[in-house]
Each structure stands twice: as structure tokens, then as C-alpha cells.
Amino acid sequence: MHRTLEEIKRLPKGIMKAQEAFERFISEYEGFKLPREILFTGCGSSHYLSQLLAMATTHLGGRGAALPCSELLYSKDYYPLGNPELLVAISRSGETTEALKALDALEVPKLGVAAYSSSLLEKSDYALFVDTPEESVVMTHSFPAFLFAFQQLLNHSFGRPLYDASRLSKLSREILKNEGYIKEIVEEFDFRNVIFLGSGILYPVALEAALKMKEMAIFWSEAYQTFEVRHGFKSVADEGTLVVLLVDEPFDWHEKLTKEFQGQGSKVFTVGRMDAGAEYFVKVPELPLPESTALYLPVIQLLSYYKAVKRGFDPDNPRFLSKVVKW
Fold it and tell me: How many other C-beta atoms lie within 10 A of the C-beta of residue 17?
């Protein structure tokens, strides 16, 4: 078994590790509460996680913004960042060059998130250590673990009920039971390109999905806000296209969009509560967003993993990539 597949399957344990990380954090920093205005930063997958957490912050009544570390360092004046009271820097390794430099970009308190005892955590005023190390190059179960740990911190800080980690962990085991079905999709339909679609907090999940497909399968993929794809971008979809629709509760527009792609010869894979008329479907348990966000991630990770295997690539060691990005 590839390390990547093994690590994708660690999600249930990763959620419990995230809960432990949250509890350890609030014990260590007694009385700490997140401020209302937060700027999140990261690189690659960590940037898409930053976007997710910025949206979750805004959803709960705060004001979240997200920038890649490099943009924060060199181009932040072009973005409406407001007046952040905290900079949250995310890096799986905690040693990414840009993430470490980004800590000095703003004169505000810093909170670091990492899976290892690292320079990022040492340099930050507050350290959220989520013990989810990975051997493979590609970030998998640590992504939803980071997400869940910070979601709990947001709930704690903004006076919202905490999520039930045990329940989410159990539901993630149910989602992982779709592994065989996802493998069958890849074996049955040798798609030539893939489009990931998501709205709101599921848009960064679509972006992360497209990145995973590129990283693991060395395969061209794109991601768009769900209905924005109709405005020109759908022209790339044909009988060789798989459209992956990430949706919470589908409504009539999702059904129309599905039929529109099917009319172009494409096949649609819906991940959500109902299939919306798609050829392929994985049901996500009926938890409200953003709590259920973590449950979408293993589906798109498994799809990328099995596409990589079908194409004869080693998903543990993608070409041209390294586990820790340094300059």
C-alpha cells in the first residue's frame, strides 16, 4: 500500500488528534480567544486551508481574509485586508521558507499551525501543534485535521457550541467506505480532464481537489465556483471530462448544470446529500456546513490517488515536488 493511501485513511484518527490539539491549546493559553479580524496565510494546500478558515471566520460573524505567503510578503498592498488583529500562518512542516518569512510581514500577534515541532511554532506567539505527521509528499489527512482543530478554536472563541469530534470521526469512517466505489469510477471512466466545482466554503475544497489531482496523478485539472463555470469555462468540457460537483444541499440549478454538462458528453460525479441527476454519487452525512467540510476531503483525495495509480505514477513521490519547500 502506498503511504499516501494509508495516510488518507488516517482521517478518523486525525480528527481525534485535532481535538486533542485544540484541548491542549486552550489549556496552554488559558483565557485565549481569537479576535474578530484574522488574516490567514499559507502556501499550496495550506493556502486553500487558509481560504477555508477565513470563510469559516466570516461565517461565524468575524472577518477573515486569506493570502498566499508570497503575496503577503510582496504584494499585500493590492488586497483589501482590513486591520487584522492576528496573523495565522499554516505550514504542515513548519519549515516552509515563505511561511517563516510571512511571520514578519505584519506587526500583529502570530499564531502558527503545523504538524511538527518546528521553526514556525517557535517563532509564533501562539502555537497550534496538530500531531498528524505524514511521510508522503502530498498533504492528505493533516489538512482536515488542521481544519477541524481550528474550527473548534473558532467555535470556542466566538461562543458557539463545539463540534462532536467522536461523531465526525465515526462519520469519516463511513465516507472512507466509498474507497472501492471511487476506484471503480476511475477504472470505468478513463477521463481526460477533470473539473471540480464548489460554492462558498466548498470552493477552496474544489481548489484543493484540483491541486491534489495535479500533484498525485500529474493530471490537468481545474476548479471553479459552481455556477461561474457556465460563463465560458465550460467550453473545455466534452465526452472525456469528469465534472466533480461538491455541494451541500442540491437545488434546481445544480440539476440544470448537471444536464448541461451531460449534454456536452461529460459525466458528473456529485459529492453531497443528493445526486442531482449525476452518473456517480457519494453521499455526505447530513451535517451542516462548515462542520461537514472535512468529510468531502477524503473523496477527492481518493479520486486523485486512484487516477495516479491508473496512470502508473507513484503518488508518494510526485515528480518535481518535495515535502518541504525551501529557498
Answer: 23
What's the whole-model pTM score?
0.97
How would DSSP label each residue in 242-309? Answer: EEEEE-SS--HHHHHHHHHHHHTT-EEEEEESS-TT-SEEEEPPS--TTGGGGGTHHHHHHHHHHHHH
What is the average per-residue pLDDT within 292-319?
96
Name the 3-class secondary structure at 26.
helix
92-127 pLDDT tens trace: 999 999 999 999 999 999 999 999 999 999 999 999
- Residue pair 240/191 in contact (Cβ under 8 Å)? The answer is yes
> What gap in Å lies between CA 214 and CA 211, rounded to an integer?
5
**Cβ density class 210-220: b for 16+ within 10 Å, e for less:** bbbbbbbbbbe
Give the relative orientation of helices 203-217 and 45-59 as an angle to the nearest 10 degrees.
170
Q: Are 225 and 197 in contact (CB under 8 A)?
A: yes
The pLDDT tens digits of the residues spanning 200-214 come to 999 999 999 999 999
Spatial distance between the Cα atoms of 38 and 291, rounded to a whole number of angstroms = 20
The region of weakest confidence among 4-13, 168-177, 207-216, 286-295 is 286-295
Helices (H), the chain: 3-8, 11-28, 45-59, 69-74, 97-102, 119-123, 142-157, 165-176, 179-188, 203-217, 252-263, 297-310
Please state whether beta strands 241-246 and 267-272 pair in parallel, antiparallel, or not at all (unpaired).
parallel
pLDDT for residue 320: 87
The residue among 221, 271, 299, 293 whose CA lies nearest residue 51 is: 293
How far is the C-alpha of 270 from the C-alpha of 106, rounded, in Å? 41
Other residues' Cβ atoms within 10 Å of the Cβ of residue 185:
21
Measure the CA–CA gap between 89 and 310, rounded to whole angstroms.
35
Domains of the chain (ranges, CATH numbers) = 3-164 (3.40.50.10490), 177-310 (3.40.50.10490)
